[in-house]
Structure formats: C-alpha cells, structure tokens
Amino acid sequence: MIPPPPGGQRRRKVVRRAVVMTPNGLTLLNLFCGVYAIILGIKGEFVKAPMFIVLGGIADVLDGRVARATGTGSRFGEELDSLVDAISFGLAPALLMYLEQPNRGTWEWLLAFIFTACAVMRLARFNVEQAGRKKTHFHGLPSPAAGLTLASYYWFSQTPLYNQTVILFTDSKTLSDLPWQTILRGLMAVLAALMMSDVPYPTVPSIGFKTLRQILGTLVVAGCVALLVVSREEFIFPAMLAYVLWGATKWVILGFLGRSGRPDEIFWEPEPAGVGRSFERRPSPMRSAPGIAASTTDGNAAPRRDESRENRQSLERREPRREPRGEEQERGNRRRRRRGGRGGNRSGGGGPSSPSSPSSPSSSPKPPKPDTPSSPDSST
Question: What's the pTM value of the predicted model, to 2 decimals?
C-alpha cells in the first residue's frame, strides 16, 4: 500500500496548480469583460460598456506578466489570449462604435466587420511572429490599443474638455462642433490599416529600478495609472490617440531619413551571445517595411545545420553510391569481356599460355607436328 503524501507536499501541489491557473484566469476575466461590454452596448448603456473594455485591457497586460514572472507560460495560454483579444478588442469596440452612431446607414456594419477582421488577422500574425519572445516593439498597432481608442471615445465625448475646448484658428469652434460621425468612420479604417501595417509600436515599458530605462518606464506606468484613476474619461482617448499618432509619425520620419533598422533590431530585444531561445520559432516569413530587410537569425540555427549535415553524411555512408546509367552499363560490358577471355583459356586445356604461344585468349593450342619423333619414355 502506497502511503499518502505528507500534508506539506499536498499543499505545495495545490499552490503550484493555483499559480499555473492564474494567467489563464486573468485571460478568461478579459473574455468576461469583452462579452459583458457587448451586452451593455446592446442595452444602450454606453457609459458602463467602455469600463469593462478598460478592465479587460488591464487583465490582458497582467496575464502575460504573471505568466512570465511565475514561469507558467505555455502554448495554450498564448492561443487562448489571442482568441480572447479578438473578442474584447476586436468585436466589442467595433460593435459599440456601430451602436453609438445615431444615424446608421445601410452599410455601416461593414466598418465593424473590417475592423474586427483586421484585429483577428493582426492577432494571428502576432502568434506566428512574436508570441513568446521578448520584444521592444510590436509589429503593427496592437489590437488592445486600437480597441481602447474606439471604446473610450464615448467617455471623452461626455467631458467638458470635449464640449468646451476651443480649436485654434477657428471662429470659437469647440471639439464637439467637428463632424465626429464622419471622423470616427475614417478613424476605424485608419486603425484597421495600422493593425495590419509594418509600423513598429513600443511595448509597455519595463518596471524596475536597476537601469535608467526601467526607472523611466516605472514613472510612465505610475503616471498613467494615476491619471486613469483620477480622470479616466478625459485621459484614455487622448492618450490612445497620441500613442497611435506617435508610432506612425516616428516610422514615417525615420523612413524618410533612412534610419529605419532591420526587424531583428526593431521588434525584439537583443539576447546575450551564446544563449539560445527557450522555444523553437516557427518558420514564417515576415513582411518587411520599406528600408527594412527581413532577417531570419536564430540562436539554434548553427547547431541545427551541423546536425543536418551529420545526418546527411551518415546516410551517404550507409547507402551505396549510385552511378550514372551510362557509366554503369560500360562497367558491366567490361566485366563481361574479362569473363569471356578467362573462360576461353580454361576451355583450351588449362593454364596460361607459354611465352612462344600467341597471346590472344581466343586462339586454341597448336597440334603436335607429325615428323617429330616422340620420346620413348613419354606417356601416350
């Protein structure tokens, strides 16, 4: 009978299982927020609906960081996160934007479909190219940023900053006087195109106090959290719009100056020499931006090439070398000619011919001369 494990070991197993389930639980919380935002939008509660999309964005940031901090990341978690983001930051914001428009035309729903389709394709490309890798920039506009930009517009439209801010060089026109229904249609199309573009967008800054970059990242994150708590309605939409414009403007300027780098210099963090990646990258070519050459460097490429070369050499030693058909036929003819010559000598009575005899292998031995007397002691 196997004794039951001690109580301490059982508690460690329970804690380990809880740690493994925490990132996936945050991902499912993101899904709940996206679905509930859709329900609130259908009911017409456009003030509460963006709040759940923002909560889904917070859960989306935390699930990946918790998985990396606890070492519980998995392929299942990556796929689940992308499927959930397609709903929370693709379908839900597009549907809210469609429902918020007072005068909906016959083909307005096509914009919602295009935005959702681009978000889904953006997430699929992320899974193929960048999932599971340390990165400094995203390849294209992230779908959470695009979704939060659309979802937070209604909040911003209800603030004094929107209704009382006077636009420069106009006759006392405020932001609310702009044709936002037309502007938002164009914004949805631009966001959809940026999600499928090659524009690099910076990731969430690293938090810490070891380097100057981590200190600046900590200050930026702390400031954003404080503004999100104090005045979320007036902060999220302008901040997301500034993030969208910053990435696109920087990419255009660097492209004109000819200072855009390669994808491995832009999108991924450099790794120490001699340290391979902890996963196998799937072979998928990346579309490169103008002036950016695609690169397929891999830390494990050299060992794989050596291994494949050894496999080919072992197969060549194991399998006989096949010669061309014409040369093989010529060798066979030479062998048959040699065998025919040796066979003629054996049929003639044996042994090699004497030096006085002809050297032709096909000639028969000469008969004895009749006038030559035979020796008395020779055998007859």
Answer: 0.65
